[in-house]
Amino acid sequence: MRTKARTPKRTIVFYSRLTIWLALLFIAGGLSFQSIQVNLFTQSDVDRAFADAMAEQMAHSLSTRLQDTRRLQTAASRHPLTVRALEENDPAWKATLRQFLSGVSSLQLIRREDAMGLQSSHGYAVQELVSRTLSGADMRLEAVQRNGSLHFYWASPIRNEQNQIAGVLLAEYGSGWLSQFQSGTSQTMGQIVVNQFVDNDRSRGLEIFRIGQEVKRAGTIVTKPINDYWYLTYIPSDERPQLELVPLATPWLIVL
Question: Is the torsion defined by CA of 85, 91, 96, 101 positive or negative?
Fold first, then answer.
């Protein structure tokens, strides 16, 4: 006569073990989620710090290059022979100054009485730049878009023996200067955009240049001032340093 198999009894030990196993399962799941969450926050901090450091470094490099150009032109406009060339209309000294000022494509010595009428040949932006310089405004670089291309003008005052502004040294910087200026940025770590804004009005911006590959996934975008009206925007690329989250979460995934 065959006897019916007995079903094992579920004792309190069985339920205690099941409870402990479920508790460990919930703990492991919570720790796994917490590990990923913490490292995501850490990754965000790393990205932000990296992008901020890169943008700060490049903005400082471009600012230094602008200051070098400004110092050279200031020295040229203050030279005694420049004052004499302005008064006597000496073309030989202008040719010498063009060799002295790196990246200059054209150079003009403009007397105060001859300063009006530049808008017909250079546009209103250059006319305003010269007029501001004659009024004693701070020397600044102006990017002007004319006929579909960018032109860079820097006007510096020429003072006579009485320390009065007698005219302006107007220099136009060409593509060679722009290439040298761009070399202060890195083209391998993302995309860099430099814009000029008029009186901090972002709606009237003018893009100076954009270099680097277009990123598929934008990281932490950082904008830094180069001077009062030129700004550098750094868009990190996918090649930026990242924390590997999978190896950090693997032990908890194994437990689950």
Answer: positive
Residue 13 lies in a domain: no
Residues 6+ positions from 72 with CB-CB distance below 8 Å: 100, 101, 102
Q: Which domain holds residue 158?
A: 66-179
Structure tokens belonging to residue 41: 């926050």
Residue-level pLDDT, tens digit, the chain, 256 residues: 455 555 556 677 666 776 776 666 666 666 555 555 555 555 566 677 888 888 898 999 999 999 999 999 999 999 999 999 998 887 888 888 888 888 898 899 999 888 888 888 888 888 999 999 999 888 888 888 887 788 899 999 999 888 899 999 999 998 888 888 888 776 667 788 999 887 666 667 788 898 887 766 666 888 999 988 889 998 887 554 444 545 554 554 555 5
Q: Total structural domains in the chain?
A: 2
Cα of 171 vs its chain's centroid, Å? 25
Residue 78 is assigned to a structural domain of this protein: yes
pTM for this predicted structure: 0.71
The dihedral sign for the CA sequence 203, 119, 231, 206: positive
Residue 218's φ and ψ, nearest 5 degrees, are -75, 135
